[in-house]
Amino acid sequence: MPHATPPGGHTPTCAVYGVPGCTTTPGQRSAHPLSLHGHARELCSEDTDEEVVPATAHPWEKPLLALCATVSLAFALVLLRLVWSVSGSALWTALSLVSVPLVCWSARGLRYARERAESVRISPTQFPEAYRMVVSLSADMGLARTPEAYLRPGPVSARADAAAHGLRRYLVLPDALFDGDGRLPDPDALAFLIAHQVGHVAAGHTGYWRRVATVGADLVPGLGSALSRAAEYTADNHAHAHLPEGTHAVRLFAGGPHLYPRVNMGEMAARAHTDRGCSLLLYHLLTRRPSNTRRMAALRDRNRRGRVFI
């Protein structure tokens, strides 16, 4: 759905629900600046034209997950066989068997510790609007526990993340969508970005055993990255199902926080079907995130799944 942005650079939002193109009585404002429940749009005077598509997994995700788990199991069996052949010791073989899960656990723990030590935690008293978005979307997606959310300075593409450690689930959000006073110039864009990251959690992408089961696939060029791209499309499906009016947020990945209102999403999406070349194809096969052109094309045309391979 193309989003026409006014000269001011930001999509007009409903004073109560943050829905583009909706108006309410001046001065009327809810305690929640952005309500993300599915019936919110019905309460506005002007509904969106786009039908909300149910949040479904990308069709390639489950087959790729099964293939990655199989490859990881094969690598584990080869490792055990090699250790047994070299050492002949049951102890060393057992240690090698638990080494990969321990390494994964330690890496995830250090990653979580870095966010806790270095990042600003989003809370009811720090960036409360963003906090309410996280809480609302987590409830809408059926999460039993609201993920922690942290704010990290840097570009949108490099800083947005969803991860976990133990029973903890957490999100990392970029500071690019906040102005110098901590306000939200474009609440829908931030909400869509949050919905995407919460979608990763809701889809099980941050699970520990999923990571352990697929770690070996990263040793095969193109295999682990293909699963990652499919997971990104799945998270986009979750975000679109709950906040279709925020899809223009993907322009942030192409234009950055200042120029994104001038990015023509339709033109970029059209290039996904016209740009060709061997180097471009190789890039699409190796990158862990869908390219901006392919991601925009998938969000604009909901009748076509996102392209994972060619």
What tags apply to this protein structure?
alpha+beta, four-stranded mixed beta sheet, about 300 residues
Reading side by side through the largest sheet, how are the strands ordered? 1-2-4-3
Number of strands: 4
Structural class: alpha+beta
The pLDDT mean sits at: 83
In percent, how helical is the residue content? 40-55%
Count, helices: 11
Largest sheet: 4 strands, mixed
**SSE sequence, one letter per element:** HHEHEHEEHHHHHHH
Strand content: 5-15%
Uncertain segments are 1-53
Spatial gap, N to C terminus = 24 Å
Radius of gyration: 21 Å
Shape: globular
Descriptive report:
By secondary structure, the chain is α+β, with helices and mostly antiparallel strands. The chain has helices at residues 61-87, 90-118, 128-140, 156-159, 187-202, 208-214, 223-242, 251-259, 265-271, 278-286, 292-300; strands at 120-121, 148-152, 161-165, 168-174. Strand 3 and strand 4 (168-174) form a beta hairpin. Helix 1 crosses helix 6 and helix 9 crosses helix 11. The chain is globular, with a radius of gyration of 21 Å. Residues 1-53 have low confidence and may be disordered.
What's the layout of helices and strands?
Layout: H1 61-87, H2 90-118, E1 120-121, H3 128-140, E2 148-152, H4 156-159, E3 161-165, E4 168-174, H5 187-202, H6 208-214, H7 223-242, H8 251-259, H9 265-271, H10 278-286, H11 292-300
Parallel strand pairs: 2-4
Antiparallel strand pairs: 1-2, 3-4
Helix pairs in contact: 1-2, 1-6, 1-7, 2-6, 3-5, 5-7, 9-11
